[in-house]
From TrEMBL:
Catalytic activity, EC: 2.4.1.255
Cross-referenced SMART domains: TPR
Identification of the protein by name: protein O-GlcNAc transferase
Alphabetized PROSITE patterns for the sequence: TPR
Keywords: Glycosyltransferase, Repeat, TPR repeat, Transferase
Keyword Transferase: yes
Family, similarity comment: Belongs to the glycosyltransferase 41 family. O-GlcNAc transferase subfamily.
Amino acid sequence: MEDRHRNILFAKAKESYQHGHVLLARECLQELADRSSGDPALQYELGMLCMEFLDNQAALRHFQELVRLAPDFLEGWLLLGMMYGELGQHDEAISCLREVLAQCPDLSEVHHRIGLLLADKRCYEEAYKEYLEVLRIEPEHQGVLCSLGVLLTATGHISEARKVLHQALERDPDSVNVINNLGRICGIGKAEESLQWYQRGLDIDPENQSLTSNYLYQLNYVAGLDPEYISSKYKEYAPRCYYPRKKWQRQVRRRNQGDPLRIGYLSADLYAHSVAFFLEPIMQCHDRSRFSIYCYSSGTVVDETTERLKGLSVAWRIIVGISDEHVAEMIATDGIDILVDLSGHTAGNRLGVCVYRPAPVQVSWIGHPNTTGLSQIDYYLTDAWCDPPGVTDQLYSEKLVRLPRIFSCYLPPVTFPQVVKAPCMLQGYITFGCFNSVAKINEPLILWWSDLLNKVPRSRFLIKGPKLDDLEIRQQLLGLFAQHGITEDRLELLGLAGTRDEHLALYGRIDIALDTYPYHGTTTTCEALWMGVPVITLAGKAHVSRVGVSLLQAVGREELIADSSGNYVAKAALLAHDQQRLLFLRENLRMMMAHSALMDAGGVTAEVEQAYVRMFEEREDV
């Protein structure tokens, strides 16, 4: 190919990328590749150009061709491994990087990348070995201590993680990655400390999306914060970092009357995760004659739940490692009418996609108990119990759309243990329990729980959570109870259960579950009810503190909802002293739940679909 024509095509591709026209850019690159087949140098240049503009899918194709043409070119294998890794194809990435190490075994950064990939696959022991190899080769390596801290956190070794992360911070005091991870591992009742770490990171990098989302999400855990204050922070912080980085205009799809509405579900949690437990029954019941379902997965975990969800979708797009604007173009090309974000500000979110407005209607639902704070999200799907009309509307940047009975429905696992006899009947004393995330426990809550234990003689408290595998966290929690006169012999702390069946079976060891506050449980409340365990909850003033209200009213158990901390303790104590009522609930809660709106998948799905149609019609009129 003549140099002049080649340069024109390169310039046209670059200009197309700069203006967000990814498909046109790829056409130019493909023409270049077709006219210069067999040239590894050109494949290298094309791949690097694609990388520059974050088009990792196209870069992958060029680097694949590069290593085919020049298998001895080690940098090609390194680049190919990087692209596979960016796109979530971990096994392929590791294989390519091992090719590099076979020739150059002491490349610390390659060992580090392999360790990160293994940790992402939850192969923690293998990842740990790779990190140690990095430190052997390069003891002063800047990034590996942070990676090691993240791994130790994931495996429940919180105190060790904290030490390692502080070592990393000493080496690099301005590392926002280290600061971010220090914010994630603060102890029980230390949500405010987490906020301080996140704010410290944001002072260094105000537009960091991960720090911003972590900061905003953490606000929901802090006891005593005014919902109006939390709302103001969401509306201030979110638009500061989530905005279109490039000019991009959605091509409007011509939709024929009677065509099914195309619904896109965007989530990092399309596996055996709380979000999927509430999404799957909806996807099972969608009316395929009226709605076409597309899924956009930004997560790296794949399991049986993932495979079932794939089978319920017209199309399944893996968007790991693909830039926000490219995902936005993918969604627009798919002609999505309503994009439903299921992550909000939780881990792995892709709110950066939503700000490009790739769909004419954009909705937040299920995964995040608060506003996104973004004007590009049009609606928040909820109900009148989580968000009473006229009470919480002003807290949202979105317009609230309330489903008539409940905000979603729950799907129990395929297999589950049978309800067992109430333990108080066998042991002669009441066992309270809380299986909510330990991060939701705070000092005011421990005061109420201690008051309850003092009001119910000989009662015990079983608390379960993965973080309780860590000795420091256990000692901290025991110490907080001790401040209120509760001795260790009345407490049992359990860490991570092996399987979901084993986790559910542990509900058989408690008589009464106690919800957390201000951040209610959702999945844990459903699990407890399904296993015949009544849940006492305290109604607050915002969605995050009212989910339990919605769940309990749906199963007709409004008497378990308290309106003050004193009432919360009193209701739990009263139920503990009423053995007949406990036995009745134990025997009947599963049936009550099965016949309630909470498990009426068909009915709730129809209500969701009606809401989608109203949203779409309303936006068409704008």
